[in-house]
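Recall that a protein's primary structure is simply its ordered list of amino acids. Everything else, from secondary elements to tertiary packing, is in principle encoded there. The following example makes that idea concrete.
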Amino acid sequence: MWDTAFSPDGRRLASASEDYTVKLWDTASGDEALTLRGHLRCVNSVTFSPDGTRLLCGADGMKIWETLPVAGR
């Protein structure tokens, strides 16, 4: 794991990984909520937009992912 970032509301944690993926974790349960695939290299940075609706990831250039709200909150 190269980097992590909490969503602005603290409900999700994003992790940038050496296996070319970004994972979103539910901070209340500790469960993996989503794995984002599509980078061609190690993902070395990750940050949420101020409103938490997007995730900016750095690897083979930058990718912006749409994020989903945590259900039931």
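The two ends are 28 Å apart (CA to CA). The chain has a mean pLDDT of 86.
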